[in-house]
Amino acid sequence: MLEKYVKAARRLEKADLVLKNADYLDVFTGTIKKGDIAVVGEKIVGTGEYSGKQEIDCTGLTVLPGYIDGHVHIESSQLSPEEFASLIVPRGTTTIIADPHEITNVCGMAGCEYVAKASQNVPLDVKIQLPSCVPATPFETSGAVLNGKDIEKNIKNDYIFGLGEFMNYPGLINCDTDTLKKAEAAHAAGKVIDGHAPAISGYDLNGYLACGVSTDHECVTKEEIEEKISKGMYVHIRHGSSTQNLGNAKFITDKNMRRFILCTDDRHAADLKEKGHLDDALRKLVANGLDPVTAVICATLNAAECYNLKWRGGVAPFYLADLVAVDNLKNFNAKYVIKSGKLVAKDGKPLFDTSKRCLPANVLNTVHLKKPLTAGDFVLTLKGTKAKAMTIEPGGVVTGCETVEVQSRNGDVIVKGTDLLKLAVVERHKLTGNIGKGLFKGYGFKGGALGITIAHDSHNIILMGDDNEAMAKAANRLKEIGGGMVIVNSQTGEIHSLTLDIGGLMSSRDAESLQRDSKALIERAYSMGVNRSFEAFMSLAFLSLAVIPKLKLTDAGLFDVEKFAFTDINV
Amino acid sequence: MLEKYVKAARRLEKADLVLKNADYLDVFTGTIKKGDIAVVGEKIVGTGEYSGKQEIDCTGLTVLPGYIDGHVHIESSQLSPEEFASLIVPRGTTTIIADPHEITNVCGMAGCEYVAKASQNVPLDVKIQLPSCVPATPFETSGAVLNGKDIEKNIKNDYIFGLGEFMNYPGLINCDTDTLKKAEAAHAAGKVIDGHAPAISGYDLNGYLACGVSTDHECVTKEEIEEKISKGMYVHIRHGSSTQNLGNAKFITDKNMRRFILCTDDRHAADLKEKGHLDDALRKLVANGLDPVTAVICATLNAAECYNLKWRGGVAPFYLADLVAVDNLKNFNAKYVIKSGKLVAKDGKPLFDTSKRCLPANVLNTVHLKKPLTAGDFVLTLKGTKAKAMTIEPGGVVTGCETVEVQSRNGDVIVKGTDLLKLAVVERHKLTGNIGKGLFKGYGFKGGALGITIAHDSHNIILMGDDNEAMAKAANRLKEIGGGMVIVNSQTGEIHSLTLDIGGLMSSRDAESLQRDSKALIERAYSMGVNRSFEAFMSLAFLSLAVIPKLKLTDAGLFDVEKFAFTDINV
Prior knowledge:
2 copies of one chain form a homodimer.
Chain A lengths: L1 H8 L5 E12 L4 E10 L2 E6 L3 E6 L4 E4 L1 E6 L8 H8 L4 E6 L2 H7 L1 H11 L5 E6 L17 H7 L5 E7 L2 H5 L3 H12 L3 E4 L6 H8 L5 E2 L5 H9 L3 E5 L21 E4 L5 H6 L3 H10 L4 H15 L16 E4 L7 E6 L2 E5 L2 E2 L35 E7 L6 E7 L2 E2 L2 E2 L6 E7 L8 E7 L6 E5 L8 E5 L2 H14 L2 E6 L5 E5 L11 H17 L23 E4 L2 E4 L4 E2 L5
Parallel strand pairs in A: 1-4, 1-5, 6-7, 7-8, 8-9, 9-10, 11-12, 12-13
Antiparallel strand pairs in A: 1-2, 2-3, 5-14, 14-15, 15-16, 16-17, 18-19, 20-21, 22-23, 22-25, 24-25, 24-26, 26-27, 28-29, 29-30
């Protein structure tokens, strides 16, 4: 192959592909240059004046290295990796560091393998980070457990790029043996460890970093960013759907610039489709005053360096021909996208087959119930008339705990006609029959039940409703469809659902029809009273996350995050 | 091990070693910080306030990451790797990218293995680059040949770090199959390729780089440096004994800074001992106006990034505890040097045993002659009275070609009493019996013969003299001592020599006594008339190098470098 590269580079033979008359970004000197870019096979072979078997006129366009997303959970889009690629590749992203944390919590290593395999169908380099925290907490039943030994075994796989965000910093800094083993295994395999260390600083941060953690995407303050960079971390500038810290870019200086990279972490399909991916981050960063060349270097060369992706992130000979030709460095509208030397998207549309889907049996039908549920399963017997009820604080993820007055009838708390709803978390992985039960105040929903199989991070079934029968029906329907979202209307008896067949988290369908149906279902939930300050279904998805204050509900019961212990609903 | 790191990082246990009250360079933000540096085992675990089992007071000192020499031939010091380390480690260098090109040209892979093995005796990380050009040219007989297949086999060895400077750029850009195979083998093994591309630019440079070459240490002009960096290369700032390009630092900007690294390439023992190693480069760069923080970052983090030496080149948790405490960022006098967590040098003196020497049989006794030489072997019969004579241009490596009038007697050219000397290159590896013969004008030496077994790059015996008998004696003595330098005095019959027992290139002795004896021998040569504008012996060492203009002599004959062909001595 080198012979072909050299001959084309020296213009003794035509290149396979030439981007003609381009302005292009030289990330190494931070300047815009003019010329043709010659490509042979998957590599750039030269810049200058070239002719090619295929030529693309880039007059008036600026060619950049393909963008690298430093940290993303594909599952948050509710799309398959193939469909996800069909949305982000046309935006200019050609490499992602993907942490399949959600699907692996449901399906174990089959989840990782699935994402790796599905990604091979599309022109996007998906570097798989082995999720480090499966389950995320010991306070719920997950679909899989990856302990130190499992990590040790699986981190060696060729298709595993590194170890995913190490959220269990208490485990590391308190020297839990099994937790340390995970980090040790990653180092033994020579693989990178991504971090997740919100507000950790000082000697605790030293302890965390002494385990060899490379990155953080959670920091937001100047002090935190400066300390983390100064202690050797790369810091992500995050542009997710709910969590963003584009403001981190304010703290970029000439000296620390190479330690900033971009990521999206969690981004919904609607945002990907309507606003974009890293192109949208670049657009906003530049609008906020960041030098566009610096912004692009963060999204390309810096990420390549951080993740040791040699020969990637630059427009130069022998670099991977991952390129995006944009209208300008303000709007970043991608006219052409080249992946590994092939034109794969034009004018925002993919040129690759987006209909192929990898659908292995072991990520389908992942909703397992010990037996069909009945109304009796949702009876909630309280000792007295005072109970703890969960609320959601403004912002959507932190919950509150309120003491409420309740009445009961036949040993079951009455919620109909009150501002309370029953909340239930039904274990769906291991046939334990576990059902955690609680009360929720102020969601607004009335006349039936809502249910969803996305429930961070173990993804059991979360149900909310004012009717035991409807809640049982909702759970049973979710099992029937293999996961997704459901609404049961007690009055009409109707059941409406949206299937998320892949692990109960993602759909194998195309983004467009999924979104249409999803919107309709969400509107139906609002029409049944859900307070519009909530996301009708997705606000439910965080009610199990027993690491975020204050009160949470898992399949094992009500959990007081501040006391870090289970708690009694009776006050 | 992580448990120990974490506990010390969090101050729950004492660190093994603490550098107290230091100013230290945070290379990631380019700032000097204050604090203690805690070390456990071979790693830094934290910065802040620490106490340790061992403590070193660094009040008033500035702690930097250990320096990384990006490209060096240890052989040029004429010292063993152990003795070389004893000179450079106390200067603050803790890692070198070593290309054992010379010893491998003599001994083949045994040369590489020797350098790797010897380096294990000393606290210096020696990353071995497999020499890519053995022999450097096909116009002489070398001790070994590493063709594409040999490179393919050996590059996979764990102890081989990458492929050494690819001097054979004509081979690459003209697509010589065997040459390309070498580069392909390096990529297949995932290893870095160092470059060597003086004045190559434009499409030829594209062709060279399309082979995946990473670095260049030969460039000197602004245009060349900018082009090379812009095309993805790292550029070395070189501080050798004869070849230097510290001026390259003038072209560092905020944007391209991360692509500059430091190296020494070839540096003599005397310079190492008297002036220093990279500390001397830093001193001079700063004296010339380079920002000291930038200079140190080039010598540390940048080199680590270039050579993919993860967790090296910074003062931060989990980074290798390679540290140098200097008096200030002007003089760079190293007070303490820490290698992999151990104090290994203090006040410029090594604290490690420098007497251990690895001396495998296969790098000793490397001077092989078919039979003892006699005066008759140096008879030079010319056809007429005009012949080509070699001269040395000012500067020492480029040679000239002058037509001279000669007289002969008994079929042998007369040099005695003229300003001509006989020059001979005696093949010493393969028992071919080859002797290349020529004339040299203007060296000044009279009354015997000089000889040396350092003769770039195949290292045959180079002899110069005005007496056939003395030349024969010189060659025979070099065989006897296993290589080195020799002077034969025809008048007194005395033979004086200095042994370079390792491959005929390096000595197994200590630097101090070697230098003393070497100086004495050199003075003896000058006393016999050698023009003081030459280096008495080392100027001979480049007379065989058939890639540098104009006229050279190899064991196969007189070579016209400009015509790139052998040439007749008769005019």
